[in-house]
Amino acid sequence: MAELKPYLQLTRPANLVTAVADILAGMAIAQFTFSSFNPAFLVISTLGLYGGGVVMNDVFDAKLDAIERPERPIPSGRVPLPAATMLGMTLLFGGVLAAALFSFQSGMIAVVIAALTVLYNRFAKHHVFFGPLTMGMCRGGNLLLGMSVLPESFQQWSFVALLPIAYIAAITLISQDEVHGGKRRTLYIAVFLYLVVLLAQLYIAQTQGNILFALPFVLLHAWLIGRPLYNAIQNPVGPLIGKAVKAGVLSLIVMNASWCMAFGLWPIALAVLALLPLSILLARVFAVT
């Protein structure tokens, strides 16, 4: 088990739970009822795509991490770089394959997500604009992967995937200053992007006639991400910015539960929300960022 733990650390297990929540939220938006067929392949797909993506993040950052984060599995020598590369590529390929086994459309979405993941890790990550945009597109694609469970609904609601792009762009913007501290201007931009997502959820819930049910979920989400971000704005140092990033990532589960409730599927909303304690527990054992 001790030999396996560094490899698990590379996959960010707490974050993997949020990826599963994306799929469930996408299926809820598509009004999937779990009565027609088993969507397990989509869940397996997102685990491979997200896990492979974060592993490749550490692969491409190995030299930088040797300076800034030498305790990570690759620079510390606990995971050899070739082994980490093989793990990341295998997970990405497995994610694409699982999606393709579900449907052709799902497979194509998975191919795009995998490509965006490599593009982000190799080229876009440290760019102030394209980094957040590309990472946001990865998460938006993950929501689309869940929606692809029902192609007819996918066409109607695919625009909703723009909102996770804004949300993840906010987190990515914040995370760029996680090591050395940052500027309040960046944090204010993140506040604006967060507000766009929260207000859009309330608007869509209103149009679906579910505003009273969705409101508590949206307010919970706002509190979870707002408190640490407020603290970071007051004192934009690395540790507080890191907490704001961690809160943003883990609270993806609450955002996804809010989507489920906005579309009136409260059993799925509660099931997604139940993933939050698991993600928090895993975050105490494995790093989120």
TrEMBL record:
GO terms for cellular component: membrane. GO terms for molecular function: transferase activity, transferring alkyl or aryl (other than methyl) groups. It holds the Pfam family UbiA. The chain crosses the membrane at residues 40-60, 107-123, 130-150, 156-174, 186-205, 211-230, 237-259, 265-287. It is found in: Membrane. InterPro entries: Prenyltransferase_related, UbiA_prenyltransferase, UbiA_sf. Keywords: Cell membrane, Membrane, Transferase, Transmembrane, Transmembrane helix. It is a multi-pass membrane protein. NCBIfam families: prenyl_rel_EboC. This is 4-hydroxybenzoate polyprenyltransferase.
